[in-house]
Write a structure and sequence with these properties.
Rossmann fold, 16 strands, about 500 residues, alpha/beta, Isoleucyl-tRNA Synthetase, Domain 1, 3 domains
């Protein structure tokens, strides 16, 4: 069918028919996690959203280069230009090297993405692996006159930039309002304006992560990494940049400004943003202290959870809302998703048992068009799912002998459900998803033993605590005590 995929472009604030820069090829960049803690439900939303986009673009016949970064330096507390690096802080608290923290939580992120059946990106670059590229972008911005050096740090000059380009075009903020509502903060006297943001920061003596530059021993600003890595792997102009809605300002706004300052033009044609997962109407995330880790969802080990939920239930839950709408967590919503997914998968199984008989007595030919129309309407997965459930009624009527279906329609129906349920929505049958129940039971048993060990330590029952640790170590478990409790992995 002719591609009429429409994408809501955050930059233009409207749906636009997708037209790639290079025919048949798509450059897609998505902001990945800052790896200083366990993957949680908030990480799953962009992962599922852009996995759906990745899958659908490939299904439409595009060759997609999908770049999803790992932030492992430069993201300071409260998204500020002052203070401690989030990863360095975690390293200090856990008495680890920063790159140990990065590796632990990158492994955790990958493990959980695999459970959710998220396709790996084409390239997954790390900020620390692209310091030279970031320095090159800084030099271009300086040469263009949109940045300045101050006490060894380099700051982007927002007011100078706004004289030539509209700062705030992505988020809809006006620089006059930003200036009026921004106050001078202690420790920012080296900036020309409180609006300016660091693209290179001179490292304080106690700062662990630092690199040499002509300006100082320091580190790149958080906003800079995506500009440098996006242009390196996708070119100075590429098709789609995605991420969570919370990144619109200041992160993506800064990216647009940096790219225009360095390259002289808009770098991205389509900006896409998924909305937040909320808990009682508040954003769910590590910074707010209300995040539930994906491991806790999978083993049910959290006070807010009534039961364990399989990775496929979490994935289906994400797909039941259009990616630009908020998704509020509740046990009731997850349980409804679980039942809906089971009903859909059961219908697929039933479809395999149906035999064609004569002519179709029921209309099925337009079902495919409705499903594709929903997907072409800015990846409207809940509408596509609703049409598939309409098809479930048809499947059950045929299976019950109330209706008949022709050979051609049966073949088309099987193909449609295979494409949407498995290829696009990425759902897996229970036996294909790594024995989810067994895995949950296994992880729950290990967590229970380690919880008993923690209780033994609190009671100063060192013999029991050491015995649990030593016996698990003999079985191949690597146990780490952390500030938050414990972490473990099974050595291969």
């Amino acid at each position: 069918m002719e591609n009429q995929l429409q994408i809501y472009n955050t930059l233009s604030r409207k749906k636009e028919v997708f037209k790639p820069i290079n025919e048949g090829k798509v450059g897609l960049y998505v902001c990945g996690p800052t790896v200083y803690g366990k993957a949680h439900l908030g990480h799953a939303r962009p992962a599922v959203t852009f996995d759906l986009l990745f899958r659908y673009l490939q299904h439409l016949g595009y060759k997609v280069r999908y770049v999803r970064n790992i932030t492992d330096v430069g993201h300071l507390q409260n998204d500020a230009d002052e203070g401690e690096d989030k990863i360095a802080k975690k390293a200090r608290l856990d008495e680890l090297e920063p790159m140990e923290v990065v590796q632990i939580y990158t492994n955790d992120y990958h493990k959980n993405m695999q459970k959710l059946n998220i396709l790996p990106p084409s390239i997954e670059p790390r900020a620390t692996g692209h310091i030279l590229e970031q320095i090159e972008v800084i030099e271009k911005i300086l040469k263009a006159g949109y940045a300045y050096e101050s006490k060894g740090s380099i700051y982007f000059d927002v007011e100078k930039y706004s004289q030539d380009y509209p700062y705030g075009e992505l988020s809809g903020r006006k620089i006059e309002d930003l200036q009026a509502n921004t106050r001078e903060l202690d420790g920012q006297d080296e900036k020309h304006s409180p609006l300016d943001f660091a693209i290179w920061k001179k490292a304080a003596p106690e700062h662990i992560m630092r690199w040499k530059s002509k300006w100082s021993d320091g580190f790149p600003g958080w906003h800079l990494e995506c500009t440098a890595m996006g242009s390196k792997y996708l070119g100075e102009r590429f098709d789609i940049h995605g991420g969570g809605m919370d990144l619109t300002f200041p992160h993506h706004e800064a990216e647009i400004a940096q790219a225009k300052a360095a390259f002289g033009h808009q770098a991205v044609n389509y900006w896409m943003h998924n909305n937040m997962v909320t808990l009682n109407g508040q954003k769910m995330g590590k910074s707010l202290g209300n995040a539930i880790s994906l491991d806790e969802f999978f083993d049910g080990n959290h006070e807010l959870l009534e039961q364990a939920y399989s990775p496929m239930t979490i994935r289906f839950f994400m797909l039941t809302a259009q990616y630009r709408s908020t998704l509020d967590f509740s046990n009731e919503a997850l349980q409804a998703s679980e039942k809906g997914m089971e009903r859909l998968l059961k219908a697929v199984e039933t479809l395999e048992t149906i035999k064609a008989k004569g002519q179709s007595s029921i209309q099925v030919t337009d079902l495919s068009d409705k499903c594709y129309a929903a997907m072409n309407d800015d990846l409207n997965s809940p509408v596509a799912i609703a049409h598939l459930f309409d098809g479930v009624k048809i499947i059950n009527s045929i299976a019950d002998g109330k209706e008949t279906i022709s050979e051609a329609d049966l073949t088309g129906l099987k193909k449609l459900y295979s494409i949407f349920v498995f290829d696009l929505f990425g759902l897996q049958k229970q036996e294909d998803s790594g024995s989810v129940d067994n895995n949950s039971a296994f992880e729950g048993a290990v967590n229970l033993l380690l919880q008993l060990r923690m209780e033994a330590k609190v009671n100063k029952d060192w013999g029991t605590a050491d015995k649990i640790r030593d016996e698990l170590a003999k079985l191949g478990f690597d146990i780490k005590d952390t500030k938050d409790g414990f972490d473990w992995e099974l050595k291969k």
